Amino acid sequence: MSSRAAVITGCGAVSPLGVGVRALWDGLLAGHTAIAPIRGFPADDLTPRSAAEVRDVARTDPDRAGALALAAATEALADAALDPRGLDARRVAVALGTTLGGMQLFERWMAGGEPLPAGLGAIPYYGPAVRLARTLACRGPVATAQLACASGTHAIALAAHWVRTGRADVVLAGGADLLCRFVVSGFNCLRATADVARPFDAARRGLVLGEGGAIVVVEDATHAARRGARVRARVLGVGAAGDATHMTAPDREGGGAVRALRAALAGAATPPAAVGLVSAHGTGTPYNDAMEAAAITRVFGRRTVPVNSIKGAIGHTLGAAGAFEAIVCARVLAEGRIPPTAGLATPDPACDGLDLVKGTARARAVEVAVSSSSGFAGTNAALVLGRA
To answer: Are the CB atoms for 38 and 53 separated by under 8 Å?
Structure first.
């Protein structure tokens, strides 16, 4: 690997709290939640029937996930003061995480409706990344990270790897996912859902699904300095590990999450004591939260670092979840405020080792923040970000 450093120079988000990073950030700080009865498709026969939906996004792509990704990428590029058309297109890449990207387009095609786009853009899961690259004239590497709910974090990790090894100077990285009957019905059948998301709460009963797009501009630090770009955060380290335990249930001891966190910290050459925030996966399911509490305690110690989750506010956005967390971490590093965990009222005694941020935002100067993600099939990923 070369000595090139990866930095984040732009952030963009379309979330259930509104369009834009500012709407997301303000809603999180205020402790708001966007979880409500589903309105985007017929759901009267579904139980539960709550979700966190995006209300305002133009149809700029054949698939809703692609439109969410394009809207987030457009804001991220504007935030970075960057136009890909003014760069060597071969040095601009796309890494997009998703679990359902292309599903809406594929369902319409299967129903005999709209035709599929031509070529690679027709492949359901890969299509949104291809169409995003085409629309924004990115001619570097294009990849779809599809590792369940850790996909968004993996996409940013891949982007940092491309930058550090010289495969790209600029990467649009993050995740996008959509809500549809297929995914809501599927999670309901797994008995993994509830009407309200309560991460780490004693009364938690399950996750609530969400949708959205979250994109960051990962850029070579020298390239960013040469053009006078403002750095939002530094990508210090990444880590990934598998549980190899079960197709849906996590390792009860958090073994994979521990290995991912320790690998990310080692890659960042950062001791656990230097971390000022852990943005937890925090789904609100009984097993995930207990596993993650055990993992965080094993890595950082008892009540040594503030921990929060954003899923009580915007739901579980699946392949976009880790990318939303990365944006939130960057904002915490810049502003010194940690959003509370919406839906958390009475912490579960089983999570007693965590210093949970609840009720109101907490003022705290943070130099290093960590995001942790976990998903089906035992996928785990962690991202370490440093203050600019």
So the answer is: yes
Q: Give the pLDDT confidence of 353-388 residue by residue, as tens digits.
A: 999 999 999 999 999 999 999 987 679 999 999 999
Determine the structural domain holding residue 272 and report its residue range. Answer: 238-387
Whether residue 68 is found in the same domain as residue 93:
yes
Where a domain ends, among 173, 197, 226?
A: 226
258 and 190 assigned to the same domain: no
Determine if the peptide bond prior to 48 is cis (ω within 30°).
yes
Residue 232 lies inside a defined structural domain of this protein: no
Question: Do 299 and 242 share a domain, yes or no?
Answer: yes
Q: Is residue 382 part of a domain?
A: yes
Nearest Cα residue to 73 out of 277, 198, 215: 215
Q: SS3 for 165?
A: coil
pTM: 0.95
* HSE-up of residue 225 (Cα within 13 Å, Cβ side): 9
The pLDDT value recorded for residue 249 is 66
Nearest alpha carbon to residue 277 among 307, 311, 309, 237: 307
Q: 50, 208 in Cβ contact below 8 A? A: yes
Residue 2: per-residue pLDDT: 53
Residues annotated as part of the active site = 149, 281, 316
Model confidence over 15-64: pLDDT tens digits? 999 999 999 999 999 999 999 999 998 999 999 999 999 987 888 887 88
